[in-house]
């Protein structure tokens, strides 16, 4: 198998979203279409309740999927289809907005005081942008966890590892979503479909994410102009974008091990028209979506 090389490394940046939620944005609007079919990755991690309790009050989505993964804390949600619930530590919510949904995501006061989670946005192809909305509320207990002979542990949300499939299946962009922990000094190898976009986001520890040990072999984005300690190993709040050629990734953990989220999916290679919480293919489709929202005709299926 041929090992994928890193295309570029980005450092997440602080921003404020929703009604005042403090978070780190790993990538987003300005990086389109580099991460195609993924649009955005936000990391919300704080021990200050004032920075997460404002939450994300009622807002619309159309044309995308939102994937929320909670590591610590509790997030309540509700939507225009009448769904209500809460996700806690280890749970995932995979929402296909499709033709349109109005929902809210409101964190509770965390039992530990700390809120830590992630939200990805994945694009939908033109042919499915107006599909019927749907949910997967995935409880932590239903997410399979594998321990390999090397000591590597993997939680499989979608995709498969060694024949074990995650609970989220039959998604348009054929995604993989894994939570991977690699012990110190251990190498993790994982096959990736040729041509698919592959991304790693480091949660803890440090590691090398390809076989090279040259920090100038790829582009680094989002670091300070005087960040002269350029390194080829990657630590927390770092996103690694791989080249699209190669049939596997190779990750070697540092002295303290490394934990990361791994995402892969089929690129759409379609025009992106994006404004706020709505992502379509043309500006005209955006205009229609916002006009419908104002007129109260945004929701197509109830």
Automatic annotation (TrEMBL):
Residues 177-298 form the Pirin C-terminal domain. InterPro entries: Pirin, Pirin_C_dom, Pirin_N_dom, RmlC-like_jellyroll, RmlC_Cupin_sf. Transmembrane segments: none annotated. CDD domains: cupin_pirin_C, cupin_pirin_N. Residues 21-121 form the Pirin N-terminal domain. Signal peptide: none annotated. Pfam families: Pirin, Pirin_C. Belongs to the pirin family. This is Pirin family protein.
